[in-house]
Design a protein that fits this description.
Blueprint (H helix, E strand, L loop, with lengths): L2 H24 L9 H5 L13 E4 L3 E4 L4 H7 L11 H10 L5 H13 L5 H8 L7 H11 L5 H8 L7 H27 L13 H9 L4 H13 L8 H10 L5 H12 L7 H16 L6 H13 L17 H14 L3 H20 L10 H10 L8 H22 L12 H8 L8
Antiparallel strand pairs: 1-2
Helix pairs in contact: 4-5, 4-19, 5-9, 6-7, 6-9, 7-9, 7-13, 9-10, 9-19, 10-11, 11-16, 11-19, 12-13, 12-19, 13-19, 14-18, 15-17, 16-18
The protein binds carboxymethyldethia coenzyme *A.
Protein backbone atom coordinates (compact mmCIF):
# COMPACT_ATOMS: atom_id res chain seq x y z
CA UNK A 1 0.00 0.00 0.00
CA UNK A 2 1.21 3.57 -0.65
CA UNK A 3 2.30 5.89 2.14
CA UNK A 4 -0.71 8.19 1.88
CA UNK A 5 -3.14 5.31 1.55
CA UNK A 6 -1.69 3.78 4.73
CA UNK A 7 -2.02 7.06 6.59
CA UNK A 8 -5.58 7.55 5.37
CA UNK A 9 -6.50 4.00 6.41
CA UNK A 10 -5.13 4.51 9.93
CA UNK A 11 -6.91 7.87 10.31
CA UNK A 12 -10.18 6.51 8.95
CA UNK A 13 -10.12 3.47 11.25
CA UNK A 14 -9.56 5.65 14.31
CA UNK A 15 -12.27 8.07 13.19
CA UNK A 16 -14.70 5.24 12.52
CA UNK A 17 -14.37 3.95 16.10
CA UNK A 18 -14.79 7.48 17.45
CA UNK A 19 -17.95 8.05 15.39
CA UNK A 20 -19.47 4.74 16.51
CA UNK A 21 -18.93 5.84 20.13
CA UNK A 22 -20.41 9.28 19.45
CA UNK A 23 -23.51 7.73 17.88
CA UNK A 24 -23.82 5.19 20.71
CA UNK A 25 -23.61 7.81 23.42
CA UNK A 26 -25.22 10.86 21.79
CA UNK A 27 -27.15 9.46 18.82
CA UNK A 28 -30.53 10.53 20.22
CA UNK A 29 -29.57 14.16 20.78
CA UNK A 30 -31.51 16.65 18.62
CA UNK A 31 -29.26 18.67 16.32
CA UNK A 32 -31.93 21.22 15.34
CA UNK A 33 -35.50 21.72 14.26
CA UNK A 34 -36.91 21.72 10.76
CA UNK A 35 -39.58 24.23 9.79
CA UNK A 36 -42.08 23.85 6.98
CA UNK A 37 -40.51 26.90 5.28
CA UNK A 38 -37.15 25.13 5.20
CA UNK A 39 -38.73 22.06 3.64
CA UNK A 40 -40.19 24.20 0.85
CA UNK A 41 -37.24 26.58 0.50
CA UNK A 42 -34.15 24.61 -0.37
CA UNK A 43 -33.46 23.09 3.06
CA UNK A 44 -31.41 26.16 4.10
CA UNK A 45 -29.90 25.78 7.56
CA UNK A 46 -30.93 22.15 8.06
CA UNK A 47 -27.96 20.18 9.36
CA UNK A 48 -28.18 16.79 7.70
CA UNK A 49 -24.74 15.81 6.47
CA UNK A 50 -21.27 15.02 7.76
CA UNK A 51 -18.41 16.30 5.58
CA UNK A 52 -14.99 15.97 7.17
CA UNK A 53 -12.89 18.02 4.76
CA UNK A 54 -14.08 21.59 5.44
CA UNK A 55 -16.55 23.69 7.43
CA UNK A 56 -18.24 26.93 6.39
CA UNK A 57 -19.01 29.67 8.87
CA UNK A 58 -21.52 32.29 7.69
CA UNK A 59 -19.44 35.19 9.04
CA UNK A 60 -15.91 33.92 8.76
CA UNK A 61 -16.02 31.85 5.58
CA UNK A 62 -14.44 28.52 4.81
CA UNK A 63 -11.98 26.58 6.97
CA UNK A 64 -10.30 23.50 5.53
CA UNK A 65 -9.68 21.08 8.41
CA UNK A 66 -9.71 24.10 10.71
CA UNK A 67 -7.48 26.37 8.60
CA UNK A 68 -8.63 29.60 6.93
CA UNK A 69 -7.38 30.54 3.46
CA UNK A 70 -4.77 33.06 4.77
CA UNK A 71 -3.54 30.37 7.17
CA UNK A 72 -3.24 27.87 4.31
CA UNK A 73 -1.26 30.45 2.33
CA UNK A 74 1.17 30.55 5.28
CA UNK A 75 1.29 26.88 6.20
CA UNK A 76 0.95 24.79 3.04
CA UNK A 77 4.03 23.94 0.95
CA UNK A 78 4.49 26.16 -2.11
CA UNK A 79 6.20 25.73 -5.48
CA UNK A 80 7.90 29.11 -5.10
CA UNK A 81 9.21 30.27 -1.71
CA UNK A 82 6.57 32.54 -0.15
CA UNK A 83 4.26 31.91 -3.12
CA UNK A 84 0.78 30.41 -3.44
CA UNK A 85 0.04 27.02 -1.84
CA UNK A 86 0.31 23.78 -3.79
CA UNK A 87 -3.18 22.22 -4.16
CA UNK A 88 -1.46 18.88 -3.57
CA UNK A 89 -0.87 20.04 0.02
CA UNK A 90 -4.50 21.03 0.48
CA UNK A 91 -5.62 17.64 -0.81
CA UNK A 92 -3.32 15.93 1.69
CA UNK A 93 -4.73 18.09 4.47
CA UNK A 94 -8.33 17.30 3.50
CA UNK A 95 -7.67 13.58 3.07
CA UNK A 96 -5.35 12.86 5.98
CA UNK A 97 -6.41 15.66 8.32
CA UNK A 98 -2.84 16.84 8.99
CA UNK A 99 -0.75 19.62 7.52
CA UNK A 100 1.60 18.12 4.92
CA UNK A 101 5.36 18.55 4.87
CA UNK A 102 6.98 19.65 1.64
CA UNK A 103 7.91 16.03 1.07
CA UNK A 104 4.26 14.94 1.46
CA UNK A 105 3.10 17.50 -1.11
CA UNK A 106 5.88 16.54 -3.53
CA UNK A 107 4.99 12.90 -3.06
CA UNK A 108 1.41 13.61 -4.15
CA UNK A 109 2.73 15.54 -7.16
CA UNK A 110 4.69 12.48 -8.28
CA UNK A 111 1.83 10.06 -7.55
CA UNK A 112 -0.51 12.16 -9.68
CA UNK A 113 2.08 12.40 -12.44
CA UNK A 114 2.41 8.62 -12.43
CA UNK A 115 -1.34 8.14 -12.63
CA UNK A 116 -2.05 10.83 -15.22
CA UNK A 117 -2.28 8.74 -18.39
CA UNK A 118 -5.62 9.31 -20.17
CA UNK A 119 -6.66 6.52 -22.55
CA UNK A 120 -7.23 7.50 -26.17
CA UNK A 121 -10.91 6.60 -26.19
CA UNK A 122 -11.55 9.51 -23.80
CA UNK A 123 -10.16 12.00 -26.34
CA UNK A 124 -12.05 10.22 -29.15
CA UNK A 125 -15.29 10.53 -27.15
CA UNK A 126 -14.73 14.26 -26.64
CA UNK A 127 -13.86 14.61 -30.33
CA UNK A 128 -17.24 13.10 -31.25
CA UNK A 129 -18.97 16.18 -29.80
CA UNK A 130 -19.55 19.22 -32.02
CA UNK A 131 -17.11 22.10 -31.34
CA UNK A 132 -19.92 24.36 -30.18
CA UNK A 133 -20.66 22.02 -27.24
CA UNK A 134 -20.24 23.82 -23.92
CA UNK A 135 -16.86 22.97 -22.33
CA UNK A 136 -18.57 21.71 -19.17
CA UNK A 137 -20.57 19.23 -21.24
CA UNK A 138 -17.37 18.07 -22.97
CA UNK A 139 -15.69 17.78 -19.57
CA UNK A 140 -18.39 15.65 -17.99
CA UNK A 141 -18.60 13.48 -21.10
CA UNK A 142 -14.80 13.01 -20.89
CA UNK A 143 -15.07 12.00 -17.22
CA UNK A 144 -17.85 9.55 -18.08
CA UNK A 145 -15.72 8.04 -20.86
CA UNK A 146 -12.94 7.56 -18.30
CA UNK A 147 -15.29 5.50 -16.13
CA UNK A 148 -14.13 2.42 -18.06
CA UNK A 149 -11.04 2.63 -15.81
CA UNK A 150 -12.91 2.43 -12.49
CA UNK A 151 -11.24 0.08 -10.01
CA UNK A 152 -14.28 0.25 -7.76
CA UNK A 153 -16.77 -0.74 -10.50
CA UNK A 154 -14.55 -3.72 -11.41
CA UNK A 155 -14.02 -4.76 -7.79
CA UNK A 156 -17.75 -4.51 -7.05
CA UNK A 157 -18.70 -6.59 -10.04
CA UNK A 158 -16.21 -9.28 -9.00
CA UNK A 159 -17.50 -9.12 -5.43
CA UNK A 160 -15.83 -7.06 -2.72
CA UNK A 161 -16.22 -7.05 1.05
CA UNK A 162 -17.98 -3.84 2.11
CA UNK A 163 -15.17 -3.17 4.60
CA UNK A 164 -12.82 -2.74 1.63
CA UNK A 165 -14.93 -0.36 -0.47
CA UNK A 166 -12.77 2.59 0.47
CA UNK A 167 -9.68 1.03 -1.11
CA UNK A 168 -10.67 1.11 -4.82
CA UNK A 169 -12.61 4.34 -4.15
CA UNK A 170 -9.31 5.85 -3.02
CA UNK A 171 -7.51 4.58 -6.14
CA UNK A 172 -10.24 5.84 -8.45
CA UNK A 173 -10.15 9.24 -6.74
CA UNK A 174 -6.38 9.53 -7.13
CA UNK A 175 -6.55 8.40 -10.79
CA UNK A 176 -9.35 10.81 -11.57
CA UNK A 177 -7.66 13.83 -9.96
CA UNK A 178 -4.40 12.96 -11.73
CA UNK A 179 -6.11 12.82 -15.14
CA UNK A 180 -8.51 15.77 -14.96
CA UNK A 181 -6.01 18.50 -15.94
CA UNK A 182 -5.13 16.55 -19.10
CA UNK A 183 -8.81 16.15 -20.05
CA UNK A 184 -9.60 19.79 -19.29
CA UNK A 185 -6.55 21.09 -21.18
CA UNK A 186 -7.45 18.86 -24.13
CA UNK A 187 -10.92 20.42 -24.27
CA UNK A 188 -9.47 23.93 -24.01
CA UNK A 189 -6.97 23.40 -26.83
CA UNK A 190 -9.50 21.55 -28.99
CA UNK A 191 -12.17 24.21 -28.68
CA UNK A 192 -10.12 27.40 -28.63
CA UNK A 193 -6.60 26.69 -29.92
CA UNK A 194 -7.08 24.93 -33.25
CA UNK A 195 -6.89 21.47 -31.73
CA UNK A 196 -3.15 22.00 -31.15
CA UNK A 197 -2.28 20.09 -28.01
CA UNK A 198 0.59 20.45 -25.57
CA UNK A 199 2.19 17.42 -23.97
CA UNK A 200 2.38 17.34 -20.16
CA UNK A 201 5.61 18.41 -18.46
CA UNK A 202 6.55 15.74 -15.93
CA UNK A 203 8.71 18.18 -13.97
CA UNK A 204 5.86 20.47 -13.04
CA UNK A 205 3.41 20.34 -10.14
CA UNK A 206 -0.26 19.48 -10.77
CA UNK A 207 -1.56 23.06 -11.24
CA UNK A 208 1.63 24.30 -12.94
CA UNK A 209 1.40 21.46 -15.44
CA UNK A 210 -2.29 22.22 -16.00
CA UNK A 211 -1.38 25.84 -16.87
CA UNK A 212 1.37 24.55 -19.16
CA UNK A 213 -0.94 22.11 -21.00
CA UNK A 214 -3.47 24.90 -21.58
CA UNK A 215 -0.65 26.96 -23.10
CA UNK A 216 0.15 29.45 -20.31
CA UNK A 217 3.84 29.57 -19.38
CA UNK A 218 3.88 32.81 -17.39
CA UNK A 219 5.10 32.02 -13.85
CA UNK A 220 2.50 34.28 -12.27
CA UNK A 221 -0.27 32.51 -14.23
CA UNK A 222 0.99 29.22 -12.77
CA UNK A 223 0.80 30.84 -9.34
CA UNK A 224 -2.77 31.93 -10.14
CA UNK A 225 -3.66 28.33 -11.03
CA UNK A 226 -2.18 27.09 -7.71
CA UNK A 227 -4.24 29.65 -5.80
CA UNK A 228 -7.34 29.01 -7.94
CA UNK A 229 -7.11 25.22 -7.52
CA UNK A 230 -6.69 25.67 -3.76
CA UNK A 231 -9.51 28.10 -3.00
CA UNK A 232 -12.17 26.44 -5.19
CA UNK A 233 -11.51 22.93 -3.87
CA UNK A 234 -14.14 22.60 -1.15
CA UNK A 235 -16.95 24.51 0.57
CA UNK A 236 -18.31 22.00 3.09
CA UNK A 237 -20.89 19.40 2.08
CA UNK A 238 -24.25 21.02 1.33
CA UNK A 239 -23.44 22.94 -1.86
CA UNK A 240 -24.85 21.41 -5.04
CA UNK A 241 -21.61 19.91 -6.42
CA UNK A 242 -20.37 18.44 -3.13
CA UNK A 243 -23.79 17.24 -2.04
CA UNK A 244 -24.53 15.63 -5.41
CA UNK A 245 -21.19 13.81 -5.50
CA UNK A 246 -21.82 12.55 -1.97
CA UNK A 247 -25.44 11.59 -2.69
CA UNK A 248 -24.68 9.69 -5.89
CA UNK A 249 -21.69 8.04 -4.21
CA UNK A 250 -23.98 6.83 -1.44
CA UNK A 251 -25.62 4.51 -4.00
CA UNK A 252 -22.11 3.02 -4.45
CA UNK A 253 -21.82 4.63 -7.86
CA UNK A 254 -18.07 4.81 -8.47
CA UNK A 255 -16.10 8.10 -8.18
CA UNK A 256 -16.28 8.73 -11.93
CA UNK A 257 -20.09 8.54 -11.93
CA UNK A 258 -20.43 10.45 -8.67
CA UNK A 259 -18.03 13.25 -9.57
CA UNK A 260 -19.57 13.65 -13.06
CA UNK A 261 -23.00 13.99 -11.43
CA UNK A 262 -21.66 16.63 -9.06
CA UNK A 263 -20.09 18.57 -11.91
CA UNK A 264 -23.38 18.65 -13.79
CA UNK A 265 -24.60 20.57 -10.75
CA UNK A 266 -21.55 22.83 -10.77
CA UNK A 267 -22.48 23.71 -14.36
CA UNK A 268 -25.62 25.56 -13.17
CA UNK A 269 -25.57 29.39 -13.26
CA UNK A 270 -26.54 29.72 -9.59
CA UNK A 271 -23.48 27.62 -8.69
CA UNK A 272 -20.13 27.30 -10.54
CA UNK A 273 -21.30 28.61 -13.91
CA UNK A 274 -21.64 32.01 -12.21
CA UNK A 275 -17.92 32.55 -12.92
CA UNK A 276 -18.59 32.71 -16.67
CA UNK A 277 -21.77 34.72 -16.12
CA UNK A 278 -19.85 37.42 -14.24
CA UNK A 279 -17.47 38.13 -17.12
CA UNK A 280 -20.26 37.86 -19.67
CA UNK A 281 -22.28 40.36 -17.62
CA UNK A 282 -19.33 42.78 -17.41
CA UNK A 283 -18.65 42.50 -21.14
CA UNK A 284 -22.32 43.20 -21.86
CA UNK A 285 -22.17 46.21 -19.54
CA UNK A 286 -19.07 47.52 -21.32
CA UNK A 287 -20.77 47.12 -24.67
CA UNK A 288 -23.97 48.82 -23.55
CA UNK A 289 -22.10 51.72 -21.96
CA UNK A 290 -19.53 51.98 -24.74
CA UNK A 291 -16.60 52.01 -22.28
CA UNK A 292 -14.19 49.54 -20.68
CA UNK A 293 -13.81 51.87 -17.69
CA UNK A 294 -17.32 52.50 -16.34
CA UNK A 295 -17.93 54.89 -13.44
CA UNK A 296 -19.62 53.73 -10.24
CA UNK A 297 -22.74 55.65 -11.28
CA UNK A 298 -22.85 53.82 -14.61
CA UNK A 299 -22.34 50.48 -12.86
CA UNK A 300 -25.13 51.28 -10.39
CA UNK A 301 -27.52 51.99 -13.28
CA UNK A 302 -26.53 48.74 -15.01
CA UNK A 303 -27.14 46.79 -11.79
CA UNK A 304 -30.61 48.38 -11.53
CA UNK A 305 -31.32 47.43 -15.16
CA UNK A 306 -30.26 43.83 -14.43
CA UNK A 307 -32.58 43.63 -11.43
CA UNK A 308 -35.47 45.29 -13.29
CA UNK A 309 -35.08 42.68 -16.04
CA UNK A 310 -35.67 40.00 -13.37
CA UNK A 311 -32.12 38.66 -13.49
CA UNK A 312 -29.63 38.01 -10.72
CA UNK A 313 -26.40 39.97 -10.37
CA UNK A 314 -23.90 37.15 -10.94
CA UNK A 315 -21.13 36.69 -8.39
CA UNK A 316 -23.16 38.21 -5.55
CA UNK A 317 -25.08 36.46 -2.78
CA UNK A 318 -24.65 33.11 -1.10
CA UNK A 319 -26.85 30.47 0.48
CA UNK A 320 -24.70 30.30 3.65
CA UNK A 321 -22.13 33.13 3.71
CA UNK A 322 -23.16 36.47 5.17
CA UNK A 323 -20.04 38.51 4.43
CA UNK A 324 -17.51 39.03 1.64
CA UNK A 325 -16.23 35.61 0.62
CA UNK A 326 -12.61 35.14 1.78
CA UNK A 327 -12.04 33.43 -1.56
CA UNK A 328 -12.95 36.76 -3.21
CA UNK A 329 -10.53 38.53 -0.86
CA UNK A 330 -7.70 36.10 -1.67
CA UNK A 331 -8.17 36.83 -5.37
CA UNK A 332 -8.32 40.56 -4.69
CA UNK A 333 -4.98 40.27 -2.93
CA UNK A 334 -3.57 38.36 -5.90
CA UNK A 335 -4.87 41.12 -8.21
CA UNK A 336 -3.26 43.80 -6.06
CA UNK A 337 0.05 41.96 -6.10
CA UNK A 338 0.23 41.09 -9.79
CA UNK A 339 -1.99 43.48 -11.79
CA UNK A 340 -3.10 46.43 -9.65
CA UNK A 341 -3.58 48.66 -12.73
CA UNK A 342 -5.59 46.21 -14.83
CA UNK A 343 -8.76 47.95 -16.03
CA UNK A 344 -11.05 44.93 -15.82
CA UNK A 345 -9.78 44.00 -12.36
CA UNK A 346 -10.40 47.59 -11.29
CA UNK A 347 -13.93 47.36 -12.69
CA UNK A 348 -14.48 44.25 -10.54
CA UNK A 349 -13.34 46.26 -7.52
CA UNK A 350 -15.65 49.16 -8.45
CA UNK A 351 -18.53 46.70 -8.79
CA UNK A 352 -17.65 45.49 -5.27
CA UNK A 353 -18.02 49.08 -3.98
CA UNK A 354 -21.30 49.55 -5.86
CA UNK A 355 -23.38 46.37 -5.72
CA UNK A 356 -23.73 45.51 -1.98
CA UNK A 357 -25.66 48.68 -0.96
CA UNK A 358 -28.01 48.26 -3.94
CA UNK A 359 -28.73 44.61 -3.13
CA UNK A 360 -29.07 45.50 0.57
CA UNK A 361 -31.66 48.16 -0.27
CA UNK A 362 -33.94 45.52 -1.83
CA UNK A 363 -34.46 44.11 1.66
CA UNK A 364 -34.87 40.50 0.57
CA UNK A 365 -31.33 39.39 -0.31
CA UNK A 366 -29.72 37.69 2.68
CA UNK A 367 -26.14 38.22 1.53
CA UNK A 368 -25.34 41.27 -0.63
CA UNK A 369 -21.60 40.50 -0.67
CA UNK A 370 -19.48 38.99 -3.46
CA UNK A 371 -18.76 35.26 -3.67
CA UNK A 372 -15.77 33.47 -5.21
CA UNK A 373 -17.09 33.82 -8.76
CA UNK A 374 -17.22 37.64 -8.74
CA UNK A 375 -13.46 37.90 -9.12
CA UNK A 376 -11.93 34.87 -10.83
CA UNK A 377 -12.66 35.73 -14.48
CA UNK A 378 -10.98 39.15 -14.41
CA UNK A 379 -7.70 37.62 -13.21
CA UNK A 380 -7.81 35.07 -16.03
CA UNK A 381 -8.60 37.71 -18.68
CA UNK A 382 -5.48 39.60 -17.58
CA UNK A 383 -3.37 36.72 -18.89
CA UNK A 384 -5.29 36.54 -22.16
CA UNK A 385 -7.50 33.67 -20.92
CA UNK A 386 -10.64 35.25 -22.34
CA UNK A 387 -12.67 32.15 -23.21
CA UNK A 388 -15.11 32.57 -20.35
CA UNK A 389 -17.26 29.55 -21.21
CA UNK A 390 -14.30 27.48 -20.04
CA UNK A 391 -14.06 29.03 -16.57
CA UNK A 392 -16.38 26.54 -14.87
CA UNK A 393 -14.12 23.70 -16.05
CA UNK A 394 -11.29 25.24 -13.98
CA UNK A 395 -13.65 25.32 -10.99
CA UNK A 396 -14.55 21.67 -11.68
CA UNK A 397 -10.93 20.48 -11.77
CA UNK A 398 -10.33 22.17 -8.42
CA UNK A 399 -13.60 20.93 -6.87
CA UNK A 400 -12.46 17.35 -7.53
CA UNK A 401 -9.97 17.70 -4.67
CA UNK A 402 -12.63 18.31 -2.05
CA UNK A 403 -15.47 16.13 -3.25
CA UNK A 404 -13.23 13.12 -3.94
CA UNK A 405 -11.35 13.41 -0.62
CA UNK A 406 -14.83 13.46 0.94
CA UNK A 407 -15.94 10.45 -1.07
CA UNK A 408 -12.96 8.48 0.30
CA UNK A 409 -14.12 9.41 3.79
CA UNK A 410 -17.75 8.53 3.02
CA UNK A 411 -16.82 4.97 2.11
CA UNK A 412 -14.15 4.57 4.79
CA UNK A 413 -16.70 5.61 7.41
CA UNK A 414 -19.29 3.33 5.79
CA UNK A 415 -21.88 6.08 5.45
CA UNK A 416 -25.13 4.50 4.23
CA UNK A 417 -27.34 5.22 1.25
CA UNK A 418 -28.73 8.75 1.57
CA UNK A 419 -32.48 8.85 1.49
CA UNK A 420 -34.30 11.75 3.19
CA UNK A 421 -38.08 11.84 3.47
CA UNK A 422 -40.17 13.98 1.14
CA UNK A 423 -43.79 15.06 1.42
CA UNK A 424 -46.55 16.27 -0.89
CA UNK A 425 -48.40 19.56 -0.45
CA UNK A 426 -51.62 17.52 -0.10
CA UNK A 427 -50.07 15.71 2.88
CA UNK A 428 -48.78 19.02 4.29
CA UNK A 429 -52.33 20.42 4.17
CA UNK A 430 -53.70 17.39 5.99
CA UNK A 431 -50.92 17.71 8.58
CA UNK A 432 -51.76 21.43 9.09
CA UNK A 433 -55.40 20.44 9.69
CA UNK A 434 -54.22 17.85 12.21
CA UNK A 435 -55.55 14.99 10.05
CA UNK A 436 -52.24 13.41 9.08
CA UNK A 437 -49.44 12.69 11.49
CA UNK A 438 -47.66 9.89 9.75
CA UNK A 439 -44.54 11.91 8.99
CA UNK A 440 -44.35 13.94 12.19
N1 LIG B 1 -28.96 39.25 -7.58
C1 LIG B 1 -30.30 39.41 -7.58
N2 LIG B 1 -31.14 38.78 -6.73
C2 LIG B 1 -30.57 37.95 -5.82
C3 LIG B 1 -29.19 37.75 -5.74
C4 LIG B 1 -28.37 38.42 -6.68
N3 LIG B 1 -27.06 38.26 -6.71
N4 LIG B 1 -28.93 36.88 -4.73
C5 LIG B 1 -30.13 36.55 -4.20
N5 LIG B 1 -31.12 37.19 -4.86
C6 LIG B 1 -32.56 37.07 -4.66
C7 LIG B 1 -32.99 35.63 -4.83
O1 LIG B 1 -33.12 35.32 -6.21
C8 LIG B 1 -34.26 35.59 -4.04
O2 LIG B 1 -35.25 36.23 -4.81
P1 LIG B 1 -36.80 35.75 -4.76
O3 LIG B 1 -37.21 35.86 -3.31
O4 LIG B 1 -37.49 36.73 -5.66
O5 LIG B 1 -36.83 34.34 -5.25
C9 LIG B 1 -33.95 36.51 -2.86
O6 LIG B 1 -32.88 37.36 -3.30
C10 LIG B 1 -33.51 35.79 -1.61
O7 LIG B 1 -32.41 34.96 -1.93
P2 LIG B 1 -31.34 34.56 -0.81
O8 LIG B 1 -32.04 33.80 0.25
O9 LIG B 1 -30.56 35.76 -0.41
O10 LIG B 1 -30.33 33.63 -1.64
P3 LIG B 1 -30.42 32.07 -1.91
O11 LIG B 1 -29.81 31.35 -0.76
O12 LIG B 1 -31.80 31.66 -2.31
O13 LIG B 1 -29.51 31.94 -3.21
C11 LIG B 1 -27.62 32.28 -4.57
C12 LIG B 1 -28.10 32.01 -3.16
C13 LIG B 1 -26.10 32.16 -4.60
C14 LIG B 1 -28.21 31.24 -5.52
C15 LIG B 1 -28.08 33.69 -5.00
O14 LIG B 1 -27.48 34.65 -4.15
C16 LIG B 1 -27.76 34.04 -6.44
O15 LIG B 1 -28.56 33.70 -7.32
N6 LIG B 1 -26.59 34.70 -6.72
C17 LIG B 1 -26.16 34.99 -8.07
C18 LIG B 1 -25.56 33.75 -8.72
C19 LIG B 1 -24.21 33.42 -8.12
O16 LIG B 1 -23.34 34.26 -7.98
N7 LIG B 1 -24.01 32.13 -7.80
C20 LIG B 1 -22.69 31.62 -7.33
C21 LIG B 1 -22.66 31.22 -5.86
C22 LIG B 1 -21.31 30.68 -5.48
C23 LIG B 1 -21.04 29.35 -6.13
O17 LIG B 1 -21.75 28.37 -5.82
O18 LIG B 1 -20.16 29.26 -6.99
Amino acid sequence: MGIIKDKFKAKAEASSIEIKDIIKEHGNKKIGEVTLAQVYQGMRGITGLVTETSLLDAQEGIRFRGYTIPELQQKLPAAIKGGEPLPEGLFYLMLVGELPTEEDANHITSVWQRRSHVPNHVFATIDALPLNTHPMTMFVVGVMALQTESNFAKAYSKGINKKDYWDPIYDDSMDLIARLPRIAAYIYRRKYKNNEHIQPNGLLDWAGNFAHMMGYEDESFKELMRLYMTIHADHEGGNVSAHTTHLVGSALSDPFLSYAAGMNGLAGPLHGLANQEVIKWIYEMQEKLGTDDPTKEQIAQYVQDTLTAGKVVPGYGHAVLRKTDPRFEAQMEFGNKHMADDKLVNTVWKIYETVPPILQSLGKIKNPWPNVDAHSGALLVHYGFVEYEFYTVLFAVSRALGVLASLCWDRALAFPLERPKSVTTASVKLWIEGKDEIWE
